[in-house]
Write a structure and sequence with these properties.
The complex is a heterodimer of chains A (76) and B (334). Chain A has 2 helices and no strands. Chain A is mainly alpha-helical. Chain A is rod-shaped. The N and C termini of chain A lie far apart (97 Å). With 334 residues, chain B is α+β, with helices and mostly antiparallel strands. Chain B has a domain at 3-129 and 308-328: 2-Layer Sandwich (Nucleotidyltransferase, domain 5). In chain B, the strands form 5 sheets. Chain B has a 5-stranded mixed beta sheet, sandwiched between helices. In chain B, helix 5 (177-192) runs antiparallel to helix 7 (239-263). Classes of the chains: A mainly alpha (76), B alpha+beta (334).
Chain lengths: 76, 334
């Protein structure tokens, strides 16, 4: 009887430890993934996209200058 | 190995960003089909040039309206052709991130992802357009400050308040620059008795359309078909007439911006007075719109320096940092 009680108690304690470790890991995962997300949105991480933005803006300026030169004549 | 893709599947234009390469495709969201055989005759710019100018057996259509797929089969074919054009084949199946309006329904959401998967994507995830626009417009959304972005597309207008990488407040209306074109068409038909096509209406909007009076306004000569006689006819339109014609559409866009501002928490609201709101999307290029929003909200409005590409560049950044940013996909946070 005592043996069974000890086994049950041991299993319960081990289960409680496993649950708390999982919960802790999950909360760390949440913190880590939030931190990773914020880091990935930082100005440093976005530098390549910013460069794209600048080159796209330059391309826009160039094409609008071209449009002004050869003004269209359809409809309006 | 396939390079992953970000797609801005807009009502007006579709842009594709390839990981490591940047924007590789920017074309109108139009497809031309043979009505009898169902065969695709053209897509993109070539199909756009056919709108309103096709013989009876050809139909040039926009498969998206109001940011939603109106014809699933045609959209799937258009996405497949677009993916083929950027090098996707049966053997190279990339991961794809697609920008969609935040207000789309669960059914529409599934329709877009299914269309992309059937068109050759290994995995398809969605991201809200205002969030992608804020990243692409280089707003400091990683900071705990209020960033406000107004994205006016062909079929939808969305305003979002973003802080710490998440959407705090959002307001979307299924009204966009195509509704402005339609309002111009209706006005000319009603007041001048002539019919003009949607491309001509768009050209009128770009030539003399405005949401608020602007300096150096000029008139436009418009040619169309007289509804009484059926003969070609020319009329002169003024900017005041066009402002009157599009007033309802502009008012509804401005009202949605005001509603979004009223939803924002007070701590973030004060940031807007200093940082302003950012306008992106093709519809944001309407003359006087920034001034009109600024006048009605008393908050500064700034134009993004890449209004047409901001959304796809933002989604492109997400595809470049796929693992870190996959929590931003629609459905991931719910």
């Amino acid at each position: 009887m005592t043996t069974i009680l000890v086994i049950v108690l041991t299993v319960a304690v081990l289960a409680a430890i496993a649950v708390s470790i999982t919960r802790y890991r999950r909360s760390r995962d949440g913190v880590d993934s939030f931190r990773r997300q914020i880091d990935a949105l930082s100005p440093e991480a976005r530098r390549p996209v910013v460069d794209q933005v600048q080159s796209a803006a330059e391309a826009n300026d160039a094409s609008s200058a071209d449009d002004e030169e050869d003004d269209d004549d359809d409809g309006t | 190995m396939a390079r992953d893709l970000a797609i801005d599947l807009g009502t007006a234009n579709t842009l594709v960003y390839m990981k490591g390469r940047g924007i590789v495709l920017n074309e109108p969201s139009v497809i031309a089909l043979n009505r009898q055989t169902g065969e695709v005759l053209a897509t993109g710019r070539e199909a756009w040039q056919m709108i309103g100018r096709t013989p009876g057996y050809i139909v040039a259509v926009r498969p998206l309206r109001g940011g939603a797929i109106t014809d699933f089969e045609i959209t799937e074919r258009m996405i497949r052709l677009l993916l083929q054009r950027v090098g996707v084949s049966r053997f190279t199946r990339p991961k794809v991130v697609i920008c969609v309006p935040s207000a789309i329904t669960e059914v529409e959401r599934r329709a877009v992802t299914d269309a992309a998967r059937r068109a050759g994507a290994a995995d398809a995830n969605l991201i809200e357009q205002p969030m992608a626009a804020a990243i692409g417009a280089d707003l400091p959304i990683d900071e705990p400050v209020g960033n406000m972005v107004i994205d006016i597309g062909g079929g939808t207008s969305e305003t979002a308040v973003i802080s710490l990488g998440g959407i705090v407040a959002l307001e979307a209306v299924r009204v966009g620059s195509f509704d402005i074109d339609a309002a111009i068409q209706n006005y000319i038909r009603r007041e001048h008795g002539i019919a003009v096509g949607e491309r001509t209406a768009e050209e009128i909007k770009m030539a003399i359309g405005s949401a608020d009076p602007t300096p150096q306004e000029s008139q436009a000569e418009v040619r169309g078909r007289d509804l009484m006689t059926g003969l070609p006819k020319t009329v002169i339109l003024t900017p005041e007439e066009i402002r009157y014609a599009i007033e309802d559409v502009v008012s509804s866009i401005v009202a949605s911006v005001v509603r979004c501002l009223s939803k924002a928490p007070p701590e973030l609201s004060q940031d807007f007075l200093v940082r302003g709101m950012y306008l992106v999307g093709g519809g944001g290029l309407l003359r006087g719109l920034a001034a009109r929003i600024e006048r009605e909200t008393e908050v500064p409005v700034r134009m993004s320096n890449v209004p047409l590409e901001a959304v796809v560049l933002g989604a492109g950044h997400v595809i470049e940092h796929y693992d870190a940013l996959k929590g931003m996909f629609m459905g991931a946070r719910r």
